[in-house]
Batch of 3 targets.
Target 1
Amino acid sequence: MNKLLYGVAYYDEYMPYERLETDIQMMKEAGINVVRIAESTWSTHEPQNGVFDFTSVNRVLDAMYKAGIHVIVGTPTYAVPTWMVKEHPEVLAVTKNGQGKYGARQIMDITNPTYLFYAERIIRKLMENVKDHPAIIGYQIDNETKHYDTSGPNVQQRFIKYLKDKFETTDALNKEFGLAYWSNDVHAWEDMPSTVGTINGSFGAEFSKFQRKLVDDFLAWQVDIVKEYRKEGQFITQNFDFEWRGYSFGVQPNVNHFTASDPFDMTGVDIYHPTQEDLTGIEISFGGDVARSTKQQNYYVLETEAQAFSHWTPFPGQLRLQAFSHVASGANMVAYWHWHSIHNSFETYWKGLLSHDLQSNPVYNEAKTIGADFSRLSSKIMNLKKKNKTAILVSNESLTGLNWFKFKYDSELNYNDIVRLIYDELYKLNVEVDILHPGSENFEDYSLIIVPCLYVAPDELLDRLNQYVEHGGHAIFTFKSGFANEHVKVRTTSQPGIIEKACGVNYQMFVEPKNVKLAGNTYEVEEDKNRVHTWMELLTPTTAETLATYDHPAWGDYAAITGNEYGKGYATYIGCIVSSEMMSGILTQALKRASIWGEEQEVNFPLVIKSGINDEGKTIKYVFNYSFELQEIESPFSQSIDLLSNSIYQKGEPLTIKPWDFKILEMK
Amino acid sequence: MNKLLYGVAYYDEYMPYERLETDIQMMKEAGINVVRIAESTWSTHEPQNGVFDFTSVNRVLDAMYKAGIHVIVGTPTYAVPTWMVKEHPEVLAVTKNGQGKYGARQIMDITNPTYLFYAERIIRKLMENVKDHPAIIGYQIDNETKHYDTSGPNVQQRFIKYLKDKFETTDALNKEFGLAYWSNDVHAWEDMPSTVGTINGSFGAEFSKFQRKLVDDFLAWQVDIVKEYRKEGQFITQNFDFEWRGYSFGVQPNVNHFTASDPFDMTGVDIYHPTQEDLTGIEISFGGDVARSTKQQNYYVLETEAQAFSHWTPFPGQLRLQAFSHVASGANMVAYWHWHSIHNSFETYWKGLLSHDLQSNPVYNEAKTIGADFSRLSSKIMNLKKKNKTAILVSNESLTGLNWFKFKYDSELNYNDIVRLIYDELYKLNVEVDILHPGSENFEDYSLIIVPCLYVAPDELLDRLNQYVEHGGHAIFTFKSGFANEHVKVRTTSQPGIIEKACGVNYQMFVEPKNVKLAGNTYEVEEDKNRVHTWMELLTPTTAETLATYDHPAWGDYAAITGNEYGKGYATYIGCIVSSEMMSGILTQALKRASIWGEEQEVNFPLVIKSGINDEGKTIKYVFNYSFELQEIESPFSQSIDLLSNSIYQKGEPLTIKPWDFKILEMK
Amino acid sequence: MNKLLYGVAYYDEYMPYERLETDIQMMKEAGINVVRIAESTWSTHEPQNGVFDFTSVNRVLDAMYKAGIHVIVGTPTYAVPTWMVKEHPEVLAVTKNGQGKYGARQIMDITNPTYLFYAERIIRKLMENVKDHPAIIGYQIDNETKHYDTSGPNVQQRFIKYLKDKFETTDALNKEFGLAYWSNDVHAWEDMPSTVGTINGSFGAEFSKFQRKLVDDFLAWQVDIVKEYRKEGQFITQNFDFEWRGYSFGVQPNVNHFTASDPFDMTGVDIYHPTQEDLTGIEISFGGDVARSTKQQNYYVLETEAQAFSHWTPFPGQLRLQAFSHVASGANMVAYWHWHSIHNSFETYWKGLLSHDLQSNPVYNEAKTIGADFSRLSSKIMNLKKKNKTAILVSNESLTGLNWFKFKYDSELNYNDIVRLIYDELYKLNVEVDILHPGSENFEDYSLIIVPCLYVAPDELLDRLNQYVEHGGHAIFTFKSGFANEHVKVRTTSQPGIIEKACGVNYQMFVEPKNVKLAGNTYEVEEDKNRVHTWMELLTPTTAETLATYDHPAWGDYAAITGNEYGKGYATYIGCIVSSEMMSGILTQALKRASIWGEEQEVNFPLVIKSGINDEGKTIKYVFNYSFELQEIESPFSQSIDLLSNSIYQKGEPLTIKPWDFKILEMK
């Protein structure tokens, strides 16, 4: 599409009374130019086994087309109808908690052939029904697809075959997974136990990887079906979601977004985040960076919050701030879950642009201004391209590995906490990043790659990281990186294993810090922020320089953080978990050394700067104020024009941003 | 009975050695004039299937009769014998956790015909055995009956028929419950899923209502059987209990006391409450007000604590204080769970009047004084009638609705917290209340009706509340009232829906308060008590006056509390959860406006005043001191005589109440 | 063995590459003279049903023998192979959570005949294979054996027979367990319900006792098999473990160590404990005292931590301190779990002497000094005998009883907390103790017996305790002692029942203390340590003197702690839970009265003194410094020589102990 899309999820099926024309009129007034339909309502479209009814789809398509609003049609397969489960209870996934119960969405076994038979049929019937409709700009496959921990006997059976293909002999498997421990080894494939009760992290993690592959396969299968029908110019997308902690927190454990996005034309995501006093924009930025990086192109935000819950209803100004933050990260669509609030069932309090009264309201009124600005500025601000010099390497395998092997058995911190510890500080320093993954082949595009907790990694990946440094790259590795191979088998070398080459440091011991700080307060933080917690490695530099040591009566001789010149590059190794403030200091040091530090880094959160190059080749700079306080800085940019007000700013001139407001500056 | 009853539960079956004559002697000395027997000991009376043995019942009846102690006989149906479950494991209720295991009481499916067959047989056998015994003054049906979340296939089957009767078509059901959401709708009754896994609050709440109806039906069925045998003058009662939070906290979620009490002659309840430093009398008062209101008559406290646990053993004086508090609320019986402490099993530490040594002790000795005073003052203090001007409207449906739709997904506050937030402050202001329910037809009897969180309500009820105000009533509605209809379907009007008429205020948005207070500290509380928490609605008055606004940078223009003249009456609307101290201020304001405020409201907790009119038409005033400190006030009453000491007090004369002590004043 | 053993668990099976010769070389350098093998690796030795392969056992035996390292061979029965569970899923224990899942160790039903058949076969095959090997000094039966809560139908069936044998009639059972309560009584053995759902503490506790007996039986059965093969001079041991709170905390609930150790020649235990800043040596001492007391002889520490987790990696010096602490308690072996760290599976982070790189490291280097000193000092410090005057009486039955009847329903304190409250203070006062149990017959060996929470006890035991005092013994009883009989039936006398005779005190009431302290701060502790919490009994002395009373407005007249001269002895009764500091005061008072107090009690923790008599009849005194601070005292000992440095100390001379260091003094 050659314009910014501003959208809503729309459910004619959920409406308490006839609203279609009224809704469309109100959408038009708000500048809504796309709606997403159909993906949750299989039972409406197939009320009984083999009985199809696409009335609601068709009437919405027709009405939207008439109104000039585009439509994305979703396949309805992520919520199964009652009749199916009544006829075939076996479609419900068997997980470690046993077989599921009917009620929620996302409860089926995505490998069950009965489910797949019905899913294929409803997709084909739907596609046959809609395929020629001119309102449709694209299709969404399923929704927030994950594996739902399906792990019943049929899945275990497949997993055995997967292991056979991979290891050929049980002896090879026993050796690599260390199954001899506690008599877990198998000497005949027939003896293979279910993974459900396993205490072997290699076995368990391999199963998780296998489960993520099931998601890849399921999505690719659906894409292939839909491709048979879609017309030229129509895209196929998914709505990926992130690790959920009551909001979109981090890397998704149950899907590998980098492989799962392969068959799609366009990556779509949903991003939900704290708001009101807690709005920082970090999740908007993080989710956007992941989405943009999956296919190294722009992306769609298929769902984000409008009013949502009592704790997410935005302050005046925040809805605008949020929408333009998505676009500033490279989104070409911002769509709300959902148009209207629902009057029954689970998401009654997950409110849409319209409240339950379905009338105009302050949030809807603010949306109108967004729609108008999106429309007016579309050609200037869509298709924003990034040229980031910094990247973070994330790994689903390491996330899983660290769930098996926590910092401490009762540790609440996990992989995503460390990713976010780093990401958040970069965000606050206005350093934009791309996200790399173990399959990425473009390490050399970056001046600095940050590698948090790469606990699980094949030799090949670590060798490539060494090479990256050797060839002049800057890298930051944290604790636990390089520890285990791709099968979560701990390396038998001294640690951090292969990357010792680049890092010039090793260790044999790691301890739990109690009242430990960095000696001399290396990063000059407030006294109570000079805190090492949860995990510390006792580092011994070989060729590295010591950047920080521990302040501790027993461990004071060991290094905490080191830096090493290797080939033409430089590798920093962080041996312990530090406070946010100290992490900021470590990153600052590395950014400066990697020549990424600039004037924009001197501007501090709550002011957030985002950049990109538009279709005209012009650089666009956003400056967001994520606070209740008016912010004033001297413009760090060469001459620029604010696309919202047409004001022109010279470098050094005062730039004033109102609370929860922003500027969109086009560089001359 | 024409006297105050002072009683104990008595279990000859549990006694470690022959005690009957000794026990009766000690009971007589304590003034115990009624015992409750038989309701937990089915296995004693029917040791094997079809083998009956009422020896223990008969000997206790005979001995009590001889001693002039009355007996209440309970049907033993709430604890099933081992032989039954061994022969018919299917009598155990299937709940969302699967089928129960034998051990505890209250584990059977109260709709299971096998259970009902045996239950009917033991009831009839028992009744045939005892029906002519002159010791018996009444019968108790079962005990603390609830539905035990029975929700197995047979119960689901019945529920479908219930839904068919109610909605006739699946389409009507789908529409009203919003089942289209996430493909939950049914297009054939055969497809109806179990409610056990449902995520639809309307479906789930309707099932809870249906489960409460099962309790009504079960109790009515037993009453009908017992009525075939009971003699004239013998009452039939139940022992209802309350929401349990380690003590009797609030409205019972699993029984509708107002409908379930219908077939009974007399409402009986059990009330357990914190004591020692934490004794306030609030639960005694609350439970009593509910019990008295079910049938608008006096009631029996069939169980309350004697020594109970280490944390409930009363300080000297408290047992007396508690007993007379029950009577002051309108109880005509105060009975202890239980006479003697038990030497084995689950309630070993739920101690009775006698400790495990079965000897006289300080608590028992205090009971003696109660028995003596009850006997001496019976005609003066029993049958106390109330003429309360204030009532609180409670709703089981709203309680259930708010469990489905909490203030926030992880909110710990629920319906009863709000009921108690109001009740407790009224109590401390010495405002006595009646309890209304959606079926009450006597709204007009009250000057002020307080309506906490009436989240689920049919139009008809809300219309009646509007009328009540229009005709001159005063009402206080809190947040969330009027939000959803009787099927937990949110109203599609602006909120608070129908009661906007009386309240003159509406809102579309609600948010979670963080650091919010009322602007200007409207109710003049200590600074740290000026706190709005958990829930706030952004109110816009239409015809109402604003009583308070929020102190918040984004929401400061909205009203927090409003008042509205409507017809001849006045409606206060509270849009947010406030501290206890602020609630007291709001109530004070409304009580004054409704002309309920009087001198007794100037007397503050820990002094508690309770009033009533006795059979002679005399007004009795109790003044309780719920504290360790001696309290002295000027008597707010016209000339009165203390029935305990015969002292006479003129208005304004000093009235001194010792710690944990009280006066019973008869007004001249 | 006539030397101190210094050992490791060694798993050739788990090694990532061929290491045997290298490992043995490194062991020799560290003075390791014993390895423990085979006990977890059934699947290696029987890779398929009936296929046996003892290659790894044999090659390790041969290589160790060649190197002069002894071997303990374990029966591999505590971790079942995959093929067995695949063929016979029924070997997995059914617990209250249903049937287990394959994965972990210790998941089988130790009464299942299929399991027993295979277990016997693998034991016999293993024994036949190794029995003549000269490297073997002993055998370990299974590992950390417990009952794993096996409670399926077959176990219930046996339990019924056990009850029949014990009670003969169901009436006797009903009476003793109080089963009439809530209709739980049985009138035919066929009606006996499973214990899994029971709410009857007597029934439940009897089942726990029965389950512990299953462990006794299982171990004795294995011992009998192994005895058929073992040669003269070879010992048979078990590796008992303790109540686990992330470390070895207290009395093991699921095994009665005193009966289970009967068939063994030698008691072996594993002891894990906090270290780093949290190292106190208390668990080393407690576990050692239990182990030593089981058979009143020296014992083996078959497992303790080397590097273990990040939170247990020892500070420099601590590994030595720990090793000699074990020996000072009477251990003749100190062995590590384990030699090398594992590269996969559950215990990857439970690190051994070698880290994952299998190279020399600081902890291993410290082990070398231990091995050398053990070897050099063996004849002086092994076989240490104790002549303790103080003993603590522990009771598995009381532990179970207090789990059924907690101080309060939500109390977090349990039996072991009270045991440790006492034990820890004795430890800090340098009072060494033996551990008695209900079957002990040597009460008279002690001057002071401390009896914490002896909640469950037969008359006979209490009578013996009375006699002990009458004959001149000193005893301290705490609250709850004597309360219930051996079937957890509360005594019907006034409390504390039978021991009232010795204690001269009784009570009928007990309450939960809120803001209660001892009047007059009896034990002169800091104000905030004068705290009575969780439980208080309202004591009335009969013949006793009051040692302390409560400071409380209602309970101030009752005694809190009393002392009573009875016969020639003296009994202290503690009626409430007090702070550690107050407990120390109470113990000091009693120790002085019992003439146990001496100069060594004036030396305070973190200095810990341990004593014993060696084979030469010399007294050995250890002085440990459990702190980061250098400690200096005047030697309280007559002339002594430090066996490590050969320095000689006269009484009163300064004795300086470095941080985490110690002296071994031989008295002249």
Target 2
Amino acid sequence: MSLLIVGTVAFDKIETPFGKTEKILGGAGTYIGIASSYFTDQMNMISVIGEDFPQKYRDILKDHKINTEGIQEVKGGKTFFWEGKYHTDMNSRDTLTTELNVLADFDPIVPEKYQDCDFLMLGNLAPAVQSKVLDQLRKRPKLVVMDTMDFWMDIAWDALVDTIGKVDVLTINDEEARQMSGEYSLVKAARKILTMGPKYLIIKKGEHGALLFDKESNCFFAPAMPLEDVFDPTGAGDTFAGGFIGYLAKTNDLSFDNMKRAIIYGSALASLTVEKFGTEKISYLTQDELNHRIESFKSLVEVDVKLLD
Amino acid sequence: MSLLIVGTVAFDKIETPFGKTEKILGGAGTYIGIASSYFTDQMNMISVIGEDFPQKYRDILKDHKINTEGIQEVKGGKTFFWEGKYHTDMNSRDTLTTELNVLADFDPIVPEKYQDCDFLMLGNLAPAVQSKVLDQLRKRPKLVVMDTMDFWMDIAWDALVDTIGKVDVLTINDEEARQMSGEYSLVKAARKILTMGPKYLIIKKGEHGALLFDKESNCFFAPAMPLEDVFDPTGAGDTFAGGFIGYLAKTNDLSFDNMKRAIIYGSALASLTVEKFGTEKISYLTQDELNHRIESFKSLVEVDVKLLD
């Protein structure tokens, strides 16, 4: 099934307790595209870059069979840049620099060839921009997944609510779910958020895993893989989203049971991403490496629970 | 299989965002005993209480078929008392009062009838006291599980290391595992702690679940049940331990696969404990209530992961 991805393609500069990088390839769209490439080769990307975006990074996207026709290049413009520093626990970080650059005036245009997409992944962006893509599609995709963050709750609440109302799956982190719903309990938060439109809610808890809720009060939990070292958490959530929707696009099965599997695949890919800086680890995985990690996840979660009489 | 439990029997006074209690029944031994009573009726308890311990609380222990012969009553003494207040997030609490009372001079004596125990649960106590029980047993139990906390790392490190060296399963929380090992990564922390003696390590992560590690690098994760409300977290860890060892005592199977099941049972019981104050919820559960919660856990964690080709 074909997958349309909307998300940033960016430069990141990252410092963690393990070291620091120069400007490297980053952005939600990048991580989503690379992660989903392990499941489908029909990926169309919508994004925006500046003239400073180097050929070697374009090549990484092309190596993953990502159609880049919908990535606008702004003449004389500079690519979106984020710089951040992680604390020792890797759960918190300081943003040192955010230069929106070409992202500030991003007006997404869906190329004609992208019209017939089956799955749509709206990476974290201004909700009005996310909506603009969805509204340009003449045929609604089978599944629309949306990622967002607290920033948009603070500055664009109405647009956020409007966009959330149009999607099938919303992914946010635990603190954002609490902020969005005003409920501390994630069960109550999920119930409230699911009245806003989405059929499914995924609450990402970082190193503590992810929860999937549906409107029928089904709930599934997938842990994060306990790792020797989390080297760089950047892109973990986007990789998760890309693996999740990529697996669904490949299997074309939107049952709750298959969504559980998609979450395991997303979690497995995210656990690989964080083992190196940026996209370094996730860029060129072998099928064996991915299968090996999936096997590790199976043994981490599989248990044959028996009821006592 | 018979189970010997060593742990405090105490008074707790608890305040949470949902309300507060007077002095109520508490103590690690109490929670462990009540939780394990859903699996075995051969429970022998070693503890100490004061003359102020009321008959109604003795009756609760007796109702659960706990043999209280090994609970010493100190004439004129007062029962151990703890008072605490939980913050809104329920993950942190302030201790307002700790009165050791009769616990200060507790010298555990194993009654002759307790000698032949198959399973031993050493609830959180001074490690020297835990050792004293183990050392009095003429025949080593099939399985010794030990719970401890950071307090003993700070004031009784050598005794703690000595006791840990004698047990089969150690249970501690994530921050304590980090403190004990000097490693931030829980994978690395587990590996180090497992060189100290235990064959298995359970790292409790509160609302984020629990991890089981063995020396062969097997790892299993069980989530905590997402709940509408966590009403009072007091005793959750002890309930978990009691459910864990109770399930093992009933099934008499010490394989890694069965330990996984025991962790699910421990987690299920812990998730019930926190739904009311103190031992209120856990004291009189029906088999149906427990089975219902186990079914909820099954659907929370079960996933049929398939490898892609």
Target 3
Amino acid sequence: MRWIRYSTPGNAPAYGLMHGDLIEPVDGDPFDGWKPTGRSLALTDVKIEVPVVPRTFYAAGLNYTAHVKEVGVALGMSLPTQPDMGYRATNALIAQGEDIIVPADATEAVQYEGELVVVIGRKAKHLREEDALSCVLGYTIGNDVSERTWQKSDRTFWRSKNTDTFKPMGPWIETEVDLDALRTEVRVNGEVKTQFRTNEMLFGIARYLSTMTRYLTLYPGDVVWMGTDGVSPNLVHGDLVEVSISGIGTLRNRVVREGQV
Amino acid sequence: MRWIRYSTPGNAPAYGLMHGDLIEPVDGDPFDGWKPTGRSLALTDVKIEVPVVPRTFYAAGLNYTAHVKEVGVALGMSLPTQPDMGYRATNALIAQGEDIIVPADATEAVQYEGELVVVIGRKAKHLREEDALSCVLGYTIGNDVSERTWQKSDRTFWRSKNTDTFKPMGPWIETEVDLDALRTEVRVNGEVKTQFRTNEMLFGIARYLSTMTRYLTLYPGDVVWMGTDGVSPNLVHGDLVEVSISGIGTLRNRVVREGQV
């Protein structure tokens, strides 16, 4: 199944199921229960919203070898020895098609990070690695936009990664996914810049969820961004960034530099 | 005014106004609007809940000189040169009177951090320092419980500070506060262990909110934990930790080590 969160003028965001380019609105939502309505909407007639506003917004950070070597090492980081989890903030979330607004005082080093996003479907603690994926509702796509100068100078990621609009997520949640078959591709203005096998992580999803839930409870609607591979060029005003993950979809957002519109 | 969030058996958490030891339930909440009901409940007849489950849970971290010197330096940190903001996670929140459960594999170095908590009342961006406090609904109390060994060994604070139950917050939100008059006192089993002037921060609340909102939007219900001063003894099974801030109240939680009950 493919869950979409959408809105129509004057109405609060709601969930529906995708059937091709049609949306079937549901009563309820994928986390607390739902009923089909039999109604139908065209995808072109709605605004796609962020697929979920998470209660807690987790991010794995350094989780692919090439990314650690090419970005992490420049920032003084070494290869993680255990799956430590970081956080991002919901203020920064934007939906499919919304603009990434780069503040006027940001440096040129604004880059994308295309990521697989795990959406938690049920409350979970003390998951064993072998059945850790049982708490997962499905998968979506994230772009962990980062200002590298601030990432290096600041004590935390509050500004480098959590400036408003720096966390595009979407377009929808796909529940049927063959993790090992997934490929991530990032294009800028249609040109392929980064490609990697999505599931070739230092620490896989099950390992992360199992480790995390030794200490913390996951809740329905929590999201876990799994990190990225490779490097990004610096993004400039007007760039269209597309993060595609095969079997899920494509997350598209344009870059706008404040003061240049 | 003093806002309390409470529940009664079989009912969802609700907001009320405190009048001495009586609660006046309201229709609505302090963030989206409310109406008085004229009804009354005894404080002893309700369960006090976490005063708000924040959309984003900010924490200033190192914001008092003595704490940086005595805890930060041991962890390789130096005095911050600008107000960078960190994050905590809502999974870890517990309310007044609930137990801090220390996992069986935690070391002995589990410590309190008594903190002033700023509760945001309205959406805000680009606040000037001189009127930054205009977005504040009121203040409550937090205990930023920390496992110092994990804090040092892990790449993030996911486990050292965000293990379930490590973030007591409450008991209520006080809207009328003279910041310069506040004093924080932390007692363990009735014995005073830490005392400091609450508002003697490296970077004050207005400076933080102004700096943060250059880049991010604050939302109603967001909380900002302002950091702590001094050091804590290691907490052991059975300890009662009380964080008092004059003019606000006292946050009380007992320490329970897993496997010792």
